[in-house]
Amino acid sequence: MTDVGGPDGSGGENDPGGSGDEIDQDDVAAIAADCETVDVAVDDRVVGVTTVTMNRPDARNALNATLRRELKRVLDAVEASDARVVVLTGADEARAFVAGADVKELRQRDMLAQREASKRPRVYEYVDDLRQPVIARLNGHALGGGCELAQACDVRIAHERAKLGQPEINLGIMPGGGGTQRLVRLVGEGQAMRLVLSGELVSAEEAAEIGLVDEVHGDETFDDRVYDLAGSMADKSPVALEFAKQAVKAGSRMNLDQGIEYEAELFAQLFGHDDKDEGIDAFLEDRDPVWSDR
Question: Which of 148, 200, 220, 263 is catalytic?
């Protein structure tokens, strides 16, 4: 199958239909076992779903250099694995998704050091560009870099206790992990200006009202909903999931004509994949489809 490249027309290892050696999900767990700050659960609640947990409870899962490095390593492995859907969350012990960047690290950087640290791809791009759908399980506060990481996910489901915001302005800086760009696309310019320029935090309920999160749940339904949604995605064709994700993302990165052309090309490419015939045959024969791995 011929790739059409990314939403900007360029090629890349995360392009739809990209080739590469696939590894087993158990290999992902083995890689995570060597990490200090990232845990992985494979098929724990739903087959085909890998849960990646950021685990720095003493620091409320703040994004320090070690966590960023280990998260990239794990996501590289997930990208190459047979996982169909990823749930990204914070350790429940911390009662936070990610409480922000490590402020002590920020204090030590000058302009040149920060420019180096800002070189892409960062963890935000790793999440955004992952070929699998990524559901943010917002088990608690998502602030600063944590809010930006949530924005990079494809769907955000929040616990009712969560608060979200971009409080960087209170430190004399501004969002630097995509918050001034992705936030606008999610909530509009006015709401983004309010959050970025005031540093104000919003409840999960208000975040849902303005479009920053997609759903809010309490203890009784939170995990059930996260994994019900993940399971409904994991039941689908992996290649169709990958192409559909890229097409939707292109909607905010291309003009309408370019986006429709990109969608049409991806749609046509799916007709060259066995899953198209399998899906239609299964529908006509009233049975469950058996999808290819990719």
Answer: 148
Phi, psi for 220 (deg, rounded to 5): -70, -30
Residue-wise pLDDT tens digits, 55-72: 999 999 999 999 999 999
Q: Is position 148 annotated as part of the catalytic site?
A: yes
For the question of whether the overall pTM of this predicted structure is more than 0.85, the answer is: yes
Of 234, 253, 274, the residue at which a domain comes to its end is 234
- 245 and 179 fall within a common domain: no
Check 70, 79, 168, 242 and give the catalytic one.
Answer: 168
Instruction: Please give the share of the chain, as a percent, with pLDDT higher than 70.
Output: 92
Share of the chain above pLDDT 90, in %: 78
Taking the C-alpha atoms of residue 202 and residue 141, their distance in angstroms, rounded to an integer, is: 10
* Burial track 258-294 (b if 16+ CB lie within 10 A, e otherwise): ebeebbebbeebbeebebbeebeeeeeeeeebebeeb
Q: Domain limits at 66?
A: 25-234
Domain shared by 158 and 137, yes or no = yes
User: Total domain count for the chain?
Assistant: 2
Confidence of residue 21 (pLDDT cuts 50, 70, 90): low
Residue 73 lies in a domain: yes
205 is catalytic: no
